[in-house]
Amino acid sequence: MSRLSPQPPLPFEAAQAYEETVLGWAADAPLPAGIAVARDRAYGPDPQHRCDVYRSTDARDDAPILIFWHGGGWTNGYKEYVAFMAPAVVGLGMVLVAPGYRLAPGHRLPAAFEDGLALTRHVITHAADFGGRGDQIYLAGHSAGAHLAALVALRREEAGGAGIPPGAIRACLPVSGIMDLHHPDPPAASLEERIYSMVLSDAAHDAVMSPLCWTVGNTIPMYLSHGESDSARVVHSNRRMAALLARQPAPSQLHEEPGLDHFATHTCLRDPKAAWYQRLAGLLQAHRRLDPSAV
């Protein structure tokens, strides 16, 4: 694992425990035989513009690609949070891309969203270098990373302007995403208040930076999920977004993961039999049936 740059303290104990767990997995568990990783590949000029790419050592240049953004409330987090997912994702016949992105408060939203667009374009352009297909892109992430994945999928005009071809993104599967940044009166020192004091460049942009405000006319299949014991804002915003997506052209689903809290919805993905992987595998199989040229 590459040397990690220092970050501000996480806002509560459960987040710190989660970080210690996933970074411990990244540091202590060697990759299984048959998986190769290219670390710290640059996709832009900032030091945070780096991604790690995991692929099978015997993969051809036509594997579907999963981009999975880490969480951390837009102020914290490392691409190494995602490393433990590599065996399961590569086991599905995919390439896994784990990106970093600029963090607040040094770089407030929309910086991370702009980085998400740039990273996606980079992956599509260089898909063959990764052993993948640029027209077989799946987007996902956890928590703040799920928010970014959904924004990249839903904001079609910006995606087109960034050079992301229509149809390249096959589906989006956000995990415990914060889909609505608006709060009418956030309590002092709360996570909701941090959105306004640390994350947004302009408080009036809370709706503009909320994925549920971009659902109209959606054409990308969206498969939302959250934990049964997830945070109230995650549960409520995903339910509202699911209701809006259900009225759009693309298929959509909302899944509640029994017994899981906000962090367990990600750490459970250490198990290759997790329900989220089963849904991803089902999408891959469906797309292969529709496109015989896909792997």
Write a structural description.
- β1 and β2 (50-56) form a beta hairpin.
- The two termini are 30 Å apart.
- The longest helix has 16 residues, at 13-28.
- α3 (111-125) crosses α5 (144-154).
- Helices cover 34% and strands 21% of the residues.
- With 295 residues, it is α/β, with parallel strands linked by helices.
- It is globular, with a radius of gyration of 18 Å.
- The chain has an eight-stranded mixed β-sheet with strand order 1-2-4-3-5-6-7-8, sandwiched between helices.
Q: Could you provide a short overview of the structure?
A:
34% of the residues lie in helices and 21% in strands. By secondary structure, it is of the alpha/beta class.
What brief labels describe this structure?
10 helices; 295 residues; alpha/beta; eight-stranded mixed β-sheet
How would you summarize the topology of this molecule?
Layout (H helix, E strand, L loop, with lengths): L12 H16 L6 E8 L7 E7 L6 E7 L16 H6 L3 E5 L11 H15 L1 H4 L1 E11 L1 H11 L1 H6 L7 E7 L15 H9 L22 E8 L2 H14 L6 E10 L2 H4 L7 H16 L5
Parallel strand pairs: 3-4, 3-5, 5-6, 6-7, 7-8
Antiparallel strand pairs: 1-2, 2-4
Helix pairs in contact: 3-5
What would you call the shape? globular
If you compute it from the alpha carbons, what radius of gyration comes out, rounded to the nearest whole angstrom? 18 Å
- Looking across the biggest beta sheet, what order are the strands in? 1-2-4-3-5-6-7-8
Low-confidence runs: none
Which structural class matches the secondary elements?
A: alpha/beta
Helix content: 25-40%
Instruction: Name the average pLDDT.
Output: 95
Strand residue content: 15-25%
> Sheet with the most strands?
8 strands, mixed
Number of helices: 10
Oligomer: single chain
Query: What string gives the helices and strands in order?
Result: HEEEHEHHEHHEHEHEHH
In total, the number of strands is: 8
Straight-line N-to-C gap: 30 Å
